[in-house]
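Title: Comparing notes on inverse folding

I've been comparing how different people in this forum approach sequence design from structure. To keep things fair, I'm posting one structure and asking everyone to reply with a full sequence. Here's the target:
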């Protein structure tokens, strides 16, 4: 809300500070939209760091004057498994929904396939990732769902 001539009783200084905080809040909302938290860490008593699956990090540090907030983003796209994990968070253990969303993400350039020696289409690759995540010797999808209380 921008200050307009003091109609709301705020001083010009407090109105400017509030509008700055509102803009900062909006920018944080935009930067964090759709992100999935991978880990929360405490490096100091006054600081918390949230790490996201896509490699971005949010730092919140309390000083005597205010909260200091900074975000670092990753220029690399998420790994294929990280994308599947993100989609499990969003759609649950639903093979059709997760694989369909993975195909859209790959076609949209949101996830990168490092190589395609087999010449698989995105649909075939999504299905192969799903099967790989359910293999008995290394069920990484099942493990992820258990750790994050996603019903399988």
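Reply #1:
Here's my take.
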């Amino acid at each position: 809300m921008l200050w307009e001539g003091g109609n709301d009783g705020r001083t010009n200084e407090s109105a400017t500070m509030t509008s700055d905080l509102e803009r900062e809040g909006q920018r944080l909302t935009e930067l964090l939209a759709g992100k999935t938290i991978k880990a929360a860490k405490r490096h100091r008593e006054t600081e918390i760091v949230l790490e996201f699956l896509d490699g971005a990090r949010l730092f919140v540090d309390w000083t005597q004057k205010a909260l200091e907030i900074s975000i670092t983003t990753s220029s690399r796209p998420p790994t294929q498994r990280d994308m599947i994990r993100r989609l499990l968070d969003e759609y649950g253990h639903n093979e059709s929904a997760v694989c369909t969303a993975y195909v859209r993400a790959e076609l949209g350039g949101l996830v990168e396939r490092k190589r395609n020696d087999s010449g698989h289409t995105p649909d075939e690759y999504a299905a192969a990732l799903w099967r790989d995540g359910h293999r008995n010797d290394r069920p990484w999808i099942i493990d992820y769902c258990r750790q994050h209380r996603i019903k399988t």
